[in-house]
Design brief:
The structure is a homodimer of 494-residue chains. Chain A has 494 residues and is of the alpha/beta class. Chain A has 14 helices and 24 strands. The relative contact order of chain A is 0.12. At the A-B interface, helix 1, helix 3, helix 4, helix 9 and helix 11 of A face helix 1, helix 3, helix 4, helix 9 and helix 11 of B.
Chain lengths: 494, 494
């Protein structure tokens, strides 16, 4: 692949022949800024991204979505090699895989992604941008950068977020990392005992990855982990992590990270009293915080206690002609939110008034599986609808059943059926409406995108599922399982 | 897992306390018969399946969907081990994987699936069935089996299909197999040189699997292979099979399978004249033929030249009160067709008149990738809409770009980017409607089910894609790529 730019150099990609004023300057060229820019440009407007970092595309390709997907793939690979090595097609895993090598592999590939982002943005999308330059916002119509003052009709703040630092002593110690520093290669040793602090969607993939690499891995969280999840589905996820060796301390606040200059342990409070978990590395998975300090100082942008920029339904901040998009405006800090909010801001800027609505969306994260869920949990559904509920589960009870089975899960179905996944649909009996869908396995994510779209635009019923044309073996078995029950007037669990 | 039945014994699961006449006897307990039965039972009717084989669920779990998914998983695993062995997390593949071992693994697991089918059908679905007994159809209201004559209001023929035997000499030779005999362990040696005859959705996964196992693999077809596919997408699929070592002879009719008692080669006609491809095994992937001989003889059921049972829009045959479903009624011989047609027959039988319509559906098959496609090919779209077309491709040209990337493809994205997949959306410029979607990669199948449902129930436009909430990194990048262009009034390729 030919390189299209040198990311270590300041880069200015501006069409100097275009003398129109900018409709918008996007401060930040991550997902929100880049997609907002592409949309604005596509509508015929003129924009400029000013990105102080060395690439377009933001955290996703720098240290977030991309590495955790790569690490997930290696996690599953290692799980299968450890389990099946020496049989059928799997050789014995006869060496200890090195985290440092994997990080280096990631960093090599990242260059290619940066380069593609550059090339696509410049050549295919025709957007204008400046990289490796710190912008200075003069006022709501002026941004200074690289010694030039650019006038603009609007400013779109797209500054993203950064990892939260929990309020415990010892964060400064060597060996305390998070998902952003991990991939920059800050570790000069191979961790052997890892404590992951946190309980959300970042905890699960990294704890699983560390465990798969052979590290003794312990998760510590002040409250229950994976709080948004359906409890039965969560139980499957946690059981499967425990089965691989991950230890959990839920409801055990971390009190301090211990050590002289480098980490030696984490002190936690358990119901039985204080306890020290010895470790050589601590991974913080304690959420993200919007990068709102600078615009607050520069423009007086209003933020809430968490640093979230306050916007109206058109994504306007309190300062006229200044919009905010992406992680800056708070949860969900997901790619679709970043990109779609960028698009909505651009429409509003170019005179197509569009309300920002998050809409229905599915949640996803990785463990040793892809976990995807949408709509209500069983607990929430019971709260709302009592006994007016019907459930479809696979496996229906006994986990040793060789289902679910589809790509990637089927290897487990045949060789370790308890590990082949879990899925559950929650349906309202009286209306036959699908209320919630929960999936632990492989390959269901693509489908959940469209299921959320269908559910957002109308009802999805068990009878709709029965009428669909499944592609069997499908990662989620919802369609065909629904069909087995859809003939019933009074729906019975399956 | 506890065993629930002995598949070597005749089994009669009839509720002898129920004295109602059967609403339907299903001849055959495969996907069509079992789902038709479940639906009829769910509606409150009474049914009986008579299956001469040893299990419910038909070919899918016996020798079709299930094994080819398992073999696909092993194909990808072997591809990665051969390519990356000795680096990062992959040990060197230091032994030759044995086909016979894999078949045995499959056969062990198959028992579990049969058992689950039995248990689910009996306990959860409450359907009545007889296994390991040959039915004799006396007339359109009477079936004799196991020495008893059962009266029924209707008969549903659900007899499935069997592999076509092409019209060439040498089919009797030892070493000539198909996907049904392969898994019964008919080979008492490890094949080293395999010729696959055929060019459809069965050719690709098995040729890829044999190649991944280390066999010298050659595909022979009398016409172009994968004829239904978009040509550009097909080119990617074939290039990727060639890259792994599969050889293709398209438009080269096989003339004879050669050998004394066992296969030694296949004679083909090429544009340069006749040629012999030496081999020790021939795999026939030459389509399926409906099992319509018996009902034609027993009841005078009308069939066409291909043996397809002729049905009206309510799935009725020419004989009153006799329906036909599943592979018996012809293409598409897919699971959704079998199951949904069973459901439709049951509705009609119980007085809920329902027209059979295949509806919109996506195609799927395996190679070294999951291949999924829906709607128009570029060739067909050009024929219909000329230049009124816009295309979104990933990669847009240069295959060395590290995209697409999502679960499973991302390992290739980082280590062998040319191999990370290909995807293409075809959109009508003037109406902005999505006409065709084509995907070579991993994990898109689940989504294509719902995309076909959305497209069947109305339009899907590029603007709809732009409004969806993607789960990034998603296996198909359609949503976010569409969003990069959706701002345009006049759509430009991406």
């Amino acid at each position: 692949m030919t390189k299209h730019y040198d990311r270590f150099q300041p880069t200015i990609c501006i069409n100097e022949d275009d003398h129109r004023e900018f409709d918008a300057i996007f401060i930040g060229g991550g997902a929100a800024g880049r997609f907002g820019s592409a949309y604005l440009r596509a509508m015929g407007g003129r924009q400029l991204i000013i990105e102080k970092g060395d690439h377009l595309g933001g955290q996703c390709c720098k240290n977030a979505c991309v590495p955790h997907h790569l690490f997930f793939d290696l996690t599953v690979q290692l799980d299968q090699l450890r389990r099946f090595g020496g049989t059928y097609v799997w050789p014995k895993l006869d060496f200890k895989p090195k985290l440092a090598d994997i990080i280096q592999m990631y960093l090599n590939g990242r260059e290619n992604l940066y380069d593609f982002m550059f090339e696509q943005s410049k050549e295919q999308l025709g957007i204008e941008f400046i990289l490796n330059h710190e912008p200075r916002i003069i006022d709501n119509h002026t941004v200074e950068v690289a010694g030039r003052a650019f006038k603009t009709k609007n400013i779109v703040l797209a500054l993203g977020s950064r990892p939260n630092r929990p309020d415990i002593p010892g964060l400064h110690l060597k060996g305390v990392i998070d998902h952003t520093s991990l991939v920059e290669g800050v570790l000069d040793y191979e961790p052997e005992r890892m404590v992951v602090i946190g309980g959300g969607h970042t905890m699960a993939p990294y704890a699983s990855f560390f465990c798969a690499l052979g590290m003794e891995t312990t998760v510590v969280n002040r409250s229950p982990v994976l709080k948004k999840m359906d409890l039965e589905t969560k139980a499957y996820v946690l059981d499967m992590m425990r089965e691989r060796g991950v230890k959990f301390y839920e409801n055990c606040p971390p009190l301090a990270i211990l050590g002289e200059d480098r980490v030696t342990g984490v002190k936690i409070r358990t119901p039985e009293g204080e306890k020290v978990i010895p470790c050589d590395t601590v991974f913080l998975a304690t959420g993200m915080r919007p990068n709102s300090d600078y615009p607050r100082q520069a423009l007086g942008i209003e933020v809430d206690a968490k640093g979230t920029v306050i916007v109206d339904e058109y994504l306007r901040t309190n300062v006229p002609n200044v919009y905010a998009v992406g992680d800056l405006i708070g949860a969900p800090m997901e790619m679709f939110k970043a990109r779609r909010s960028g698009m909505v801001a651009s429409r509003n800027i170019l005179g197509v008034p569009t309300r920002w609505q998050v809409g229905m969306f599915a949640e996803q994260f990785h463990s040793f599986y892809e976990v995807t869920y949408l709509g209500l949990t069983e607990e929430k559904a019971r709260e709302m609808y009592g006994d007016d509920l019907m459930f479809i589960r696979m496996p229906p009870g006994d986990r040793s059943i060789a289902l679910p089975a589809a790509e990637r899960s089927i290897t487990y179905s045949f060789l370790a059926p308890e590990l082949s996944g879990f899925q559950k649909a929650i349906i309202q009996k009286s209306t036959r409406k699908v209320l919630g869908l929960h999936h632990v396995g492989f390959g269901a994510k693509e489908g959940f995108q469209y299921l959320s779209w269908i559910m957002q635009n109308g009802e999805l019923t068990i009878d709709d599922f029965a009428e669909m044309n499944e592609l069997f073996l499908n990662p989620s078995h919802f369609i065909q399982l629904a069909r087995l029950r859809a003939g019933q007037r009074e729906l019975v669990n399956l």
